[in-house]
Amino acid sequence: MTPEETTILDYLNGRPESAFAKREIARKAAKRVVYEENPHWADAPLASLVQQKLIEIDGNGNYHLPKEKFD
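Request: output the structure for the sequence above.
Response:
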């Protein structure tokens, strides 16, 4: 797992029952300077985490932890 993927998972684990837009994750999961230098830094790690089934994307395009993780 990459450091970026870990950063995103840590952010999502902070509010496990919530779903977040890609832009919000990119802005809030890492330090501000990371987002300012590359607003799309989270795109590839999010895609990878979805592919690994560690996170899910809902019909609105928001990312969240799988439901079974917090049931």
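The helical segments are 3-13, 22-28, 32-37, 43-51.
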